Model the fold of this input.
Amino acid sequence: MARDVFVLHGEYAPGLPFGCTHIRLLRPLSHPSLAGDIALTHGTRLPEDGAVDAVIVERLPHVSPELSLAESERLIRELETREIPYIYATDDNLLDLNNGRPWEATPGREARAAVRLLARRAAGIIVSTEALRERMENLNPRVVTIPNFLDERLFGPATGPKLATDRIVIGYMGTRTHDADLRMILRPLRDFLGRERGRVRLEVVGVVDDANLAAYFDALPVSRLDPGVDEAYPRFPGWMRRSLRWDFAVAPLSDEPFERCKSDLKYLDYAALGIPALFSDVRPYRQTVRHRETGLLVSNRSDAWAEALEEAAGDRALRARLARAASDEVYATRMLATNARRWPEAIDRLLEPPFAPNATS
Done:
């Protein structure tokens, strides 16, 4: 009999769960291969009636960040009263996000306390990376790592690399929390675009608004792609497949406590789209990308990025080889079709008695 699982999540607009919610929970748990194992429902509030075998609480699902600790306490009391076990799930190291940056309001002290409370009182925790498991296991020893996987229903069959032309298009994609990563390679990127004006241009998805983008790059050949209504999951992969015609992409990432717990999702996206990429040589990518086989790993130094940009732009055969190898690997090993079952297995494991949530808040 299928286990009734309710995912409690936040949303960035009414009725629109965050992209990470789809990637990490809604797409895996609704995969057709799990029809006999999981009966999934989800929302921003617990169902008032109806049988629920377990709840997965994602990140901080509360409407009011400044009241997140009180709301977490109320949530735990309600679950305990109704005798419903819960699992805490997160794909980000919220405990270290913006630590040491007092000008950033999110997450505040109360939100961090709420994360610790939810993690400690849970039957277990599901995370996306081994680094994040190491960060969370001091709060709760029952932590399971499930890497990110792509939903083949959204990405479709593998595509080959872009057909070669005389003009090179470099791509960069990231949420606004990755603005600092883009700035990290700004100098070598600007210098390269300036030297290769007329032959190379940059396309950016997300990260910064048009005003900041213009300030970063002045009159250099840079444009911003706007997904519009397709920005929200599950439509975004289809938009990427239709819209991104990049010769190669860049994926810089800082080597800081928050970033070290990030996943290799950009590697998965680019590989599935047939786009070869340059990745910072940091833990999230180093554990997945094989240098010069499925991508280029680049030290976070300006001279290293300058050299990598020159090589990727000048070596068409290298780009094609990297794109094919990465695509083959991701379609063979990182799709839900062959990995969705890891989710019910993890849920069963974490809900096996006896579990003893840590009552210390």
